[in-house]
UniProtKB/TrEMBL annotation:
It catalyses: meso-2,6-diaminopimelate + H(+) = L-lysine + CO2. Gene3D superfamilies: Alanine racemase (3.20.20.10), Lyase, Ornithine Decarboxylase, Chain A, domain 1 (2.40.37.10). GO terms for molecular function: diaminopimelate decarboxylase activity; pyridoxal phosphate binding. Belongs to the Orn/Lys/Arg decarboxylase class-II family. LysA subfamily. Keywords: Amino-acid biosynthesis, Decarboxylase, Lyase, Lysine biosynthesis, Pyridoxal phosphate. It comes from Halorubrum rubrum. This is Diaminopimelate decarboxylase. The active site is at residue 365. Its cofactor is pyridoxal 5'-phosphate. NCBIfam families: lysA. Homodimer. Residues 44-296 form the Orn/DAP/Arg decarboxylase 2 N-terminal domain.
């Protein structure tokens, strides 16, 4: 694929870089709401949905909600016209609460805890249009044991995978989906117990311009499987009964450019490659499940510099956000762009400071608690605000309370207005479940 065709479309640019954010606005929000602070722009989230829908006009586009399950984001995505792809009972619950009807809700069960299956089977009584995607015969048996006979999609392990890190490459991981060569027979057997409506594969995250080949391969295999199942290419005798499938779901994994100099994905080229590779689907719909792509560049994490320490190995800039707020660098060695927004007393505007290579590190007692080394930032000073970019996907979502750190606040921007959509956790929130279990009294801090 070529990247020359990626053009800035003006009203809806293909990417928003950390440098595109309004520094004064972010600084005002940080002053008002404190740091660390997630800022999620719902208008940008909507634009990302619109670009996906226009690149894949005939496809079912399902937002993989695990990238960001904030209520405001879910409502934005629903209004933009995407369905919801959920990975747990909790996600199904939140998608329903955000107004997704069962016909727009897909639940993908991966080694599902009994509690999740109980919940979903119960919900399907009220919302029979929900589709359950299962990737193991055991899961099918467990659904049947609960009396489930509704809409079912079979998750297949296509044997090819993409991904920016081994931990997010699922296509070839045996954990996900039934093996490709058993998929047709499992699907046919499943059709005796369920309403089998689709086949599904998700290769992992990080489809980027260099990895389109493995995407193509996955898509082609899924097209072949679907044609086999619907009996589109009968080859003569003893054909099994065709299945009445509705769709082929080729998963998510649409990459976003984390590095400032990385090219954005050419969605039209991906769409074309996908259509080519899947082949003639004889009326079946194509479905995709982008998560990251919808929310990543719509979010930043704003953090304040509290320590600037010269060391023989270079300058370490200490900030008040850590791996508990944004886990991706520690977990995946992920790169997030960082920009100095300024704000330190008696310091010039960052544009008037010399860039200096620094390490940006958080407050957690872990060596991995670093947002990057050798980053050329406008010479940071204590009190400056830094914006950690492209943090809208798997950012707040993976935040946790390790080191007894309350989770940050989140502000959503829409139509020029800023709204706190998740309040900052307080120290008292750290002990809620403990106090509820033991009845212990704790001062309200
Ligand atoms: C996580 C996930 C996605 C979305 O992945 P992204 O890289 O965020 O696009 C899609 N489908 C399934 C089944 C997933 O688990």
């Amino acid at each position: 694929m070529t990247t020359e065709t990626v053009r800035d479309t003006g009203a809806n640019p293909v990417v928003r870089r950390v440098s595109d954010w309004d520094a004064d606005r972010l600084a005002a929000l940080a002053d008002e709401h404190g740091t660390p602070l997630y800022v999620q722009d719902l208008d940008r989230t909507r634009q990302n949905c619109e670009r996906l829908l226009s690149a894949f006009p005939d496809a079912d586009v399902r937002y993989a909600v695990k990238a960001h399950t904030g209520r405001a984001v879910l409502e934005t995505v629903r209004e933009a016209g995407l369905d919801a792809e959920c990975a747990s009972a909790g996600e199904v619950d939140r998608a329903l609460a955000a107004g997704f009807g069962g016909d727009r809700l897909h639940y993908t069960a991966v080694n599902p805890p009994a509690r999740d299956l109980d919940y979903v089977v119960d919900v399907v009584e009220r919302e029979p249009a929900i589709t359950v995607t299962a990737g193991a015969v055991d899961t099918l048996d467990r659904l049947a044991e609960r009396g489930y006979d509704g809409r079912l999609c079979l998750r297949v392990n296509p044997g090819v995978g993409a991904g920016h890190h081994a931990k997010v490459t699922t296509g070839s991981a045996p954990k996900f989906g039934v093996p490709y060569d058993r998929a047709a027979s499992v699907a046919r057997e499943a059709a005796e117990r369920f309403d089998v409506v689709g086949v599904h594969a998700h290769a992992g995250s990080g489809i980027d311009p260099d990895q389109l080949d493995s995407h193509r391969e996955l898509v082609a295999r899924m097209g072949d499987l679907a044609r086999e199942l619907i009996g589109a290419e009968p080859d003569g005798n003893d054909e099994p009964d065709p299945l009445d499938l509705e769709y082929v779901d080729v998963g998510g994994g649409f990459g976003v450019p984390y590095r400032e100099d990385a090219e954005p994905l050419d969605l039209d080229a991906v769409a074309e490659a996908t259509r080519d590779a899947v082949g003639d689907l004889s009326g079946l719909a194509l479905a995709i499940e982008p998560g990251r792509y919808v929310v990543a560049d719509a979010g930043v994490l704003v953090t304040r510099v509290n320590t600037v320490k010269p060391t023989p190995e270079g300058t370490v800039v200490g900030v008040d956000a850590g791996m508990t707020d944004l886990l991706r660098p520690a977990m995946y060695d992920a790169y997030h762009p960082i920009r100095n927004l300024g704000g330190a007393v008696d310091e010039p505007d960052p544009a008037d400071r010399e860039p200096e290579p620094v390490t940006v590190a958080g407050p957690i007692c872990e060596t991995g608690d670093s947002f990057g080394t050798d980053r050329a930032l406008a010479r940071p000073a204590r009190g400056d605000l830094l914006a950690v970019g492209v943090a809208g996907a798997y950012g707040y979502e993976m935040a946790n309370q390790y080191n007894s750190r309350p989770r940050p606040a989140e502000v959503a921007l829409a139509d020029g207005k800023a709204t706190v959509v998740r309040r900052r956790e307080r120290l008292v929130d750290l002990t809620t479940v403990e106090r509820e279990a033991t009845g212990a009294e704790v001062a309200d801090r």
